[in-house]
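Holo prediction. Input below; ligand is N-oxalylglycine.
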Amino acid sequence: MADAGEDIFMKHFKALKRKCPPADLTSVLDLDNPGSFTNKISRITPKGVSADSMFGLLPVSEWRAYELLDVPGAIIIRNPFTEMLRRYFVCRCLSDYPRQPNISNLDTSPRIYPEIWQAGCHPNSDLRARKYLHKLRWVTLGYHYDWTKKVYSQESCNDFPQDLSTTTQHIVQAVLGESCDFKAEAAIVNFYHLDSSLSGHTDHSEFDLAAPLISVSFGLPCVFMIGGQTKTKVPQALYLRDGDVVIMSGKARMSYHAVPKVLPKNVFSAAKKSDTPSSVDKNTMTSTVNPKCDDECSKRSHCEEFTEHSSAKKVKHDADTSCFTQLINCVHDTEFWKPYETYLHESRINLNVRQLFEPGKQAKDYCWPTTDPAFNFLTNST
Ligand code: OGA
Ligand code: MN
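Structure of the complex:
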């Protein structure tokens, strides 16, 4: 379906993607330093109350959230994660989510290494295994996506990870209100390296095109672009950094968007944020869990608090993966965390979470498109 009129989006995409001569990035909005762009954004105050007690996210009152005035409904939250939850999800994206029966780009032929991360994550891992890990580009969760036919598959579906669905629901409710009952039913985990980009597209394969899209970034910063519902509108480009969340809601749900460029780690050399969990995190977490938390609580470790809170909130972990609490305990360990941090120095992870069905509806209420025969073969062969 070609849009009538000039492809302005593509023009901007190419200009920002350019390597030689280097792209002019002066039109890219930096939420940490908006300068002359202040008229392009409005600060929004997350209104949900339940998210105040979401453990592992900073208190909602501390979130910095903005809406793009030229793209109403496009909301960016600057890293609302505590360092602990950030590490937790990075580990899940690299060591758990790529496991079968989830599907990755490496599954078009039998996997050379079934455990992609575990085989290739160490500097002294076998070179072939390291190259294999470097080739990991995407993993699908929940209802798997057939990239050839651009449809979701009814047959190929796994339980959606509870941790990711709980967290995304809290974020959506905090920003869009308690009445927005977002249900994570499918996700694509994208793995980018410095030379990667994602060209302009809309996400339109979901049955519900009104429910928001939630996109979480970890690791290297990037330039993200978002425009209108056709490619004829001038898009807004902005930097996304480690931990940032983009919500595409309302009219922006069907906006064209793209990632023309991944940037090196030191590009914002003035960035001061520490890479290790800080005392600030600890204090924040205590108040996040329970505002009434007193001395007794603050004496306990993050892990104990996390465990208690997560069981209280019934956050279940996938049975086939390391348990939630175990992983939380592990991410504090410098040795355990090191390979993940190394990966993030050279790569960007994007967790793109979608609701497929309209409120009150389920899979059986829809007429599903057929998936590619090769895709069926792939998903039945595990
Ligand atoms: C997607 C997508 C954006 C990003 O996977 O559909 O738009 O920030 N990703 O990587
Ligand atoms: Mn998209």
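The pocket of manganese (II) ion (ligand 2) is lined by residues 201, 203, 257 (CB under 6 Å). That is the main takeaway for now.
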